[in-house]
Amino acid sequence: MSFEHSQTVSTTAPPSAVWALWSDTSTWPTWDPSVVAVALDGPFEEGTTGTMTLAGPFEVPVVLAIVEPGARYLDQLTMGDLVIRIDHVVTAQPDGGSEVTVSTTIVGPGADDIGPMVTAEAPLALAALTAAAEAASA
């Protein structure tokens, strides 16, 4: 079973402002209502592992599967046989702003059932992320 969800928003903030928030995991709880805390076992780079505490609260292992500084990262959460991959991409726009896309793919038993719950707050997270990036770049 699998589930997919993707959302794209535009912001006046430059990619560097969005990336600054993404690459500093201590900010994640301030803009993502699903995240309580993130503890990485190393720098924000490909292959780094750690633990993400989600609202509930419950802890899940996380790995930064892809990191392209300033442009993209994909984090992967594993909960038993369920794997959640969240791909974050920011691209510069001609007006100096950015386009931000977050795509979630869930694979494993019950993916169709858990998917809507996992992505329910994605619009709130994107709105808070872009608002924080705009405030930081103002």
Name a few traits of the molecule:
Alpha-D-Glucose-1,6-Bisphosphate, Chain A, domain 4, alpha+beta, 138 residues, 45% strand, 7 strands
What does this structure look like?
With 138 residues, the protein is α+β, with helices and mostly antiparallel strands. It has one domain: 2-Layer Sandwich (Alpha-D-Glucose-1,6-Bisphosphate, Chain A, domain 4). The chain is 27% helix and 45% strand. The protein has helices at 15-22, 28-31, 111-119, 122-137, and strands at residues 2-11, 35-40, 49-54, 58-68, 72-79, 82-92, 98-107. Helix 1 crosses helix 4 (122-137). The mean pLDDT is 96.
Summarize the structure.
The chain has one domain (2-137): START domain (Alpha-D-Glucose-1,6-Bisphosphate, Chain A, domain 4, 2-Layer Sandwich).
Which sequence of SSEs, written as H and E, runs from N to C? Answer: EHHEEEEEEHH
Q: Gap between N and C termini, in Å?
A: 44 Å
**CATH homologous superfamily classification:** START domain
| CATH class category label | Alpha Beta
> Into which percentage range does the β-strand content fall?
35-45%
Measured as a percent range, the helix fraction is 25-40%
Poorly predicted segments: none
CATH architecture: 2-Layer Sandwich
Strands, count: 7
Number of helices: 4
Radius of gyration: 14 Å
Largest sheet entry: 7 strands, antiparallel
**SS class:** alpha+beta
Q: What would the CATH topology be?
A: Alpha-D-Glucose-1,6-Bisphosphate, Chain A, domain 4
Shape: globular
Q: For the largest sheet, list the strands in their spatial order.
A: 1-7-6-5-4-3-2
- Tell me the count of domains: 1
Average pLDDT, all residues: 96
